[in-house]
Amino acid sequence: MAASYEGIIISTLWFMYNMSKNPDIQEKLFEELSNFDESNESMIASQINELTFLDQCVKANLRIYPPLACLPRKTSEEIGINGYSLPEGTLTLTAIYSIHHDEKIYSDPNQFDPSRFDPENITKIPPGAYIPFGDGPRRCIGERLGLLGSKIIFSSIIKNFRIVSSKENNIRVKTDLRTEFMNSVKFHFIPRNN
Fold first, then answer.
1. Residue 50: which region, alpha, beta or left (left: phi > 0; alpha: psi -120 to 50)?
2. Got the DSSP string for 160-171?
3. N or C: which end of the chain has fewer CB within 10 A?
């Protein structure tokens, strides 16, 4: 549970950055969220799952800036890959950030583009090319909690504020284990009229 909350915090910062840089996408999301009533607690989970553009924005956010830049693992037995032998106990890294920015898979990979996750486009993403929560038997068990938490937080922010980027926001990305800002980032939160 603690890991999912840390991932939500990192994702929220990147989400605010992406929304501030894409005001047209932010307004489209606000339109979808305008009928969402987060005060009705019994409706939150069922309503949240019906918000398709929010889902696309969350996935686009996790693709371009996955909370974990790489996944370290040790081999539990000797493994052969492409003619090479990896002995038991070998440290391996799955470079999630690099996979999510591969130009052979994603055209203009640095572009925040929720339409990549439209129902007709999502089938074009090959298996293993979108893995913000890992894959296979070691896939993150906090995925559903993380996604639901992110959607609730993101929807609350966008429903109540318009996020505007500071002119100083020339970000530098740090990708050792987590995907983080190397420099400070400033936003302006403008309250929306109810």
1. alpha
2. HEEEEE-TT---
3. C
Residue 72: CA count within 13 A, CB half-sphere? 6
pLDDT band at 44 (very low <50, low <70, confident <90, very high): low
Please enumerate in sequence order all residues whose Cβ is within 8 A of that of 44, keeping only pairs 6 or more positions apart, or say none. Answer: 38, 152
Q: Greater confidence, 58 or 73?
A: 58
Is there a contact between 48 and 193 (Cβ–Cβ < 8 Å)?
A: no
Dist. CA 80–CA 193, nearest whole Å: 60
Residue 51 above 80 pLDDT?
yes
Contact 146, 8 (CB under 8 A): yes
